[in-house]
Amino acid sequence: MLLRDRIFKTLTRLVGRAIGDFNLIEDQDRILVALSGGKDSWSLLYALRHLQRKAPIKYEIAAITIHPGRDTFDLSALHERLILDGIKHEIVDGHIVDIVNENLTDGTNPCSFCSRLRRGMLYTFAAREGWNKIALGHHLDDFVETLMLNMFFNGSIKGMSPKLLADDCQNIVIRPLVYVREEITRTVAAGLKLPILGCSCAYQGMSGSRRQWVKQLLKSVEQEIPDVKSNLLASMGRVRDRHLFRKRSLGEETDTIRFVNDD
């Protein structure tokens, strides 16, 4: 069985390390795993379930899927597999496709809009039903790519946090796959023969060109610097503030950098 496989053991070891490093899970936590049906969220769910059996603390987990409202998005195989493995599964009818179609304006990224809607529905459900943490399946590659996207295209040093208080100041979001590379989740999902669901949205692929460009850039750089992704991830926790630009005074920011010619 894959549960005894070296790759699955690597997955659970890295997830366990992240839980310890960032204090992601505490005794009596109730954790909702956002299960999209992709390889990453599936791998996260089974890693947490495996660790739950051996953990010195007690915590509850369940999967939650936001149904986008399209008939082509069939959850039956996913739901049946979770029932077979004894995992509680919540389904929230989001009607996201209709909301996006009715409210999308020129210049709005449909995927970002959809993501915000899903996140809001997750937060609302978790707060209402008493789940105190939401686990998302962002892996190491996502962390690094997001950092580079913000630096290259937004002019900011900003990434994702393994643990943060959500904007609603109620839910805590955790990302236990922070140390896990994407190829590991791909191998685990295939080995467990999990029913993978793709995005059935008509906007799929419209906004991923920049991320794909960053993926290809990193792949190219890795040929010269094999540890580049690990180094970039580590840099997010090794910020030397005094070697970055600082505000001129408290409460004051400037968008203009002035260079003085002393000649």
UniProtKB/TrEMBL annotation:
Membrane-spanning intervals of the chain: none
Keyword line: Transferase
Keyword Transferase: yes
BP GO annotations: tRNA processing
Gene: ttcA
Tree of life domain: Bacteria
InterPro entries the record matches: Rossmann-like_a/b/a_fold, TilS/TtcA_N, tRNA_thiolation_TtcA_Ctu1
Organism of this sequence: Desulfomonile tiedjei
Protein name (Swiss-Prot/TrEMBL): tRNA 2-thiocytidine(32) synthetase TtcA
Keyword Transferase among record annotations: yes
Domain tRNA(Ile)-lysidine/2-thiocytidine synthase N-terminal: 31-187
Entry's Gene Ontology molecular function annotations: transferase activity
EC number(s) stated in the UniProt entry for this protein: 2.8.1.-
Class in the EC hierarchy, top level: transferase
